[in-house]
Amino acid sequence: MSNQLPVINLMGPTASGKTALACELYEQGDFELISVDSALVYQDMDIGTAKPTKDELAQFPHHLIDIISPLEVYSAASFVEDASALIDDMHTRGKTPILVGGTMLYFKALLEGLSSNLPSADYAVRAEIEAMGERDGWDAVYAHLCQVDPLAGQRFKVSDKQRIIRALEVFKLTGKPITQLQAEQPKNLPYRYTFHNYALLPDRIELHKRIEKRLEIMWDIGFLNEVEELMKKYDLNEDLPSMRSVGYRQAMEFLKNSDKSIVNRKEMEDRALFATRQLAKRQYTWLRSLQETHKFTTYLTIKQAQEDLRNCYG
Predict the structure, then answer these.
(1) For residue 42, what is the DSSP state?
(2) Is 103 known as a binding-site position?
(3) 14 appears as a binding residue in the annotation
(4) Please, what are the domains in the chain?
(5) Over the stretch 237-249, which tens digit does the pLDDT of each residue have?
(6) Positions of the region Interaction with substrate tRNA (predicted)?
(7) Can you tell me the distance from the alpha carbon of 112 to that of 139, in angstroms, rounded to the nearest whole number?
C-alpha cells in the first residue's frame, strides 16, 4: 500500500554485530536509530549492557537509551507506545527509522500488536513460579501449565521457561488461560507501517566465542565496579527487572553474598557467561518463531549483511 511507511527492523542475538551494522547504515542515508533493548533503557547501566559509549551515541544517536532509572519498570506496551510515536515523528521529518536490538518481545509486540486485556507483569508472582521451578524442577512447572492451559502446553516446550512463566503468571492473576485471553482480545496492529525485517544469525560456535570475549572485556574495564556503584546509588534487589539483566544479577549476588574470593569471582563470571549464552539461545528461538509468521531476510555473517544492505539502502 502506497500510504504505508517503511520501518527497518534489524534483529539478532547478543554480540551478533547488529549495532555496528545499524550505525553503518545510519551513515548512508536519512535514517534515525531506535534501540530495541530492554536493558539499554536503564540509566547508569553501561558496561554490562554493552551500551554504546557517549562518543558513539554522539556520532550515532539512538532513541530509547537511558530513559529510566534501574528502579523503574519498562514494558513491551511502553515500548510500542514510545517507538510508534518516534516512528511517526521520523516519517514526518522525512527520515526512515532503523530499529535495532535483541529484545524480541518488543519486536513481536510492534509487529503483531498487544492483546489489550492481558495483565502487566507481576514480579512477586514470577518469583513464586521461579521458586517452584528451582524447588520442584521445570518439568513439574510445565506439567502444571499443561493442566491449567492445555493449549499453551501444546505450544510450548519445557525449555521455554520465559513463556511458561508468563502463561502461569497470567493464569494466577486472572484465573483464565493466556491462550483464551489472547484469542478473545483484538490486537492493535500497526497497519500504517511496512516492516522490512532483517536478522543476523551467526554460527553459534562463533557467537559463543564473541560472547566470551565481550564478557572478558567487560570485567576488565570495570563491570563489577559499575554494579557496586549501582548498589550504592539505588535501593536495588534481585527481583527488579533491571537486575534480571544477564551479568547484573550474578554480579549483585557475588557482591552481596560472597567473600569475594578469586574462586567465588570465577564462579560468578562463569554463571554470567552461561546466562548470556542462554539469553542468546532464547533470542535464536524467538527469531525463528517470528520468521514463521513474518517475512525476513536472514544473514549468517556481518559481511553478508553489510554488502546486501549497502546495496538496498546505500
Answers:
(1) B
(2) no
(3) yes
(4) 5-114+188-203+294-313 (3.40.50.300), 123-184 (1.10.20.140), 206-278 (1.10.287.890)
(5) 888 999 999 999 9
(6) 37-40, 162-166
(7) 30
